[in-house]
Design brief:
This protein is mainly α and about 525 residues long. The protein folds into two domains: about 10-370, no CATH class; about 385-515, no CATH class. The protein has helices at about 10-35, 40-75, 85-105, 110-140, 140-165, 170-185, 195-210, 235-240, 245-250, 250-275, 280-295, 310-315, 320-335, 340-345, 350-365, 375-400, 405, 420-425, 430-445, 445-465, 485-515; strands spanning about 85, 305, 470, 475. Strands 1-2 form a two-stranded antiparallel ribbon. Helix 6 (about 170-185) packs across helix 15 (about 350-365). The chain starts with 8 loop residues before the first helix and ends with a helix.
């Protein structure tokens, strides 16, 4: 069977994935400079080139992996796994590790080295996760994995982009209309032009003709745009392996590494539900190797298998979109051309594609699980909503020049259960998976299995992986250690107690009825 390396629909997929990656790169540039005091030569000359090599190698591998799957299954509709910078780790590392170290030392190069070590250790954990990934997928219900992704998609992906679209309807609605017609109605445009390409072109044209863009800002006045090759920086990490800061923040690095493994498993399950079953071990192994490569060449930020495979597949993307994305991101990282691109092409021109991706993921969570598991999918969405809601609260307070620490949690006592929101947000991906899994096994009347999952939740609460937090001047920080969230541990143990009692009760009734 002929399986072309590129299809016309790969262009649509490329635009969506490239915009997603561009957002992460812009965050890296702005947050590293503002919160970590990093000079331009470090950000543009070291971190971005290191990021480039990890993204390029990973995208090429997942394209090759898709081609192999297509050949082995004799199908021409296989879509490569999307891949890029891990957004959650990006925020966690900067806000909870790198920024505090900078505030303590005012040394941006020390911050950079600590960030590289965190990225390296995250990659090691991801590689270890590759060894047990298949086992984790076997014991975790599909509804639990997909509902967690649905929660993230409807909040952190779709909602944010929906707000941006409705913030500037004059330049965002018309591009969105092309995307909706393309993907909802499956209409083929003249000359076979991809809807994503038309949307970006139309949105860019509208923005420039209506005066939303500034031509004077295109040229970088500081001369930061220059070509930088990645170079090996592993020796810089060795200098600080035993640093007190590594030990101080290991309680954040390790859970984040585990978090990345679980997230990748969820995305593999999502891809299988969409029709592309990839082997767990090589997928997670490459994921971990990508993070390690990033760190060895100067980046502080792990890479990961992205959420959204069903959306790219629904668009019609195959393997070429991943190759194009890897090459494109590598070029703009090595040239420092990131900010110029966003000054030419408005974000609103292409974010309709990402809104579509989120819609597909949410729909898939209900469509690709047994109908009677729908309630389990629904309950798994709640922790992500709490996480997103807390982000909105914190962002609003920061805009008002204050923080939760300053005004105190009790300020919300009369109108918002802020303690519950924060507790549900801490480790929300684990909590979502656990609650949905428990629900599935209760629906199936597998009370003993539900009991085991409840005891697992109790353990994670007790050591602080989920629900435990402390309010600090730098923000909300997870607390790790024995008894970190003992109230929740007791609560989950009460779950387990009831479930095991119901298990023996129902078995006793079954025996009586059989006699």
């Amino acid at each position: 069977m002929n399986y072309p390396l590129f299809t016309r629909k790969d262009i649509d997929g490329f635009f969506g994935l490239a915009i997603d990656n561009l957002v992460q790169l812009i965050l890296i540039v702005s947050l590293c400079k503002v919160l970590c005091g990093m000079p331009d030569e470090l950000v543009f000359g070291v971190i971005l080139p290191g990021t480039a090599i990890s993204i390029l190698v990973g995208n090429l591998f997942y394209s090759w992996q898709a081609k192999r799957l297509a050949i082995s299954t004799q199908r021409n509709d296989v879509t490569a796994l999307p891949y890029g910078i891990n957004t959650v780790s990006l925020f966690a590392f900067i806000f909870f590790i790198m920024a505090p170290v900078y505030n303590d030392t005012k040394d941006p190069y020390l911050v950079w080295k600590i960030g590289m070590i965190a990225c390296f250790l995250s990659g090691i954990i991801e590689i270890f996760g590759a060894l047990i990934g298949d086992w984790l997928r076997r014991i975790t219900p599909r509804a639990a994995l997909l509902s967690t992704l649905a929660g993230i998609a409807i909040t952190f992906i779709s909602m944010d982009f929906a707000f941006k679209i409705f913030e500037k309807p004059i330049i965002a609605f018309f591009p969105l209309a092309f995307i909706l017609v393309q993907y909802f109605s499956k209409v083929r445009f003249p000359l076979g032009l991809p809807g994503g390409l038309i949307a970006v072109g139309v949105g860019t044209g509208l923005a420039w003709t209506m005066g939303y863009m500034d031509s004077g800002s295109i040229v970088d006045k500081n001369g930061l745009i220059h070509f930088s090759l990645p170079h090996f920086c592993g020796g810089s990490m060795l200098e600080l392996v035993q640093s007190k800061y590594v030990l101080q923040y290991i309680s954040i690095i390790v859970p984040m590494g585990v978090f990345n493994v679980v997230g990748s498993l969820q995305n593999l399950e999502s891809a299988e539900a969409a029709g592309d079953k990839y082997d767990t071990f090589p997928s997670l192994l490459t994921n971990g190797i990508g993070s390690i490569m990033a760190s060895l060449f100067g980046s502080c930020f792990p890479t990961t298998i992205y959420i959204g495979h069903p959306g790219w597949k629904a668009i019609g993307a195959r393997t070429g979109y991943s190759i194009l994305n890897g090459i494109f991101i590598a070029i703009i990282c090595l040239s420092g051309f990131i900010t110029v691109i966003l000054k030419v092409v408005p974000l609103e021109a292409g974010i309709g594609i990402l809104l579509w991706i989120g819609i597909v993921i949410v729909a898939q969570a209900f469509q690709e699980t047994p109908k009677h598991h729908a309630m389990a999918v629904a309950i798994g969405i709640f922790p992500a909503i709490a996480a997103w809601g807390l982000l909105m609260v914190e962002s609003t307070l920061r805009s008002a020049g204050t923080t939760l620490f300053i005004i105190g949690e009790d300020a919300f006592a009369n109108n918002l259960a802020i303690h519950g929101m924060i507790s549900l947000e801490r480790g929300f991906i684990f909590t979502a998976t656990i609650l949905a899994s428990i629900s599935v096994f209760l629906i199936e009347k597998k009370f003993l299995t539900a009991c085991i999952w409840s005891l697992g939740a109790a353990l994670l609460s007790f050591v602080g992986i989920i629900h435990a937090y402390e309010l600090t001047p730098h923000g909300i920080v997870s607390i790790f250690g024995f008894g970190a969230a003992s109230d929740f541990a007791i609560g989950y143990c009460s779950f387990a107690t009831l479930f095991i009692a119901i298990h023996f009760y129902t078995h006793g009734r079954e025996k009586q009825s059989s006699h």
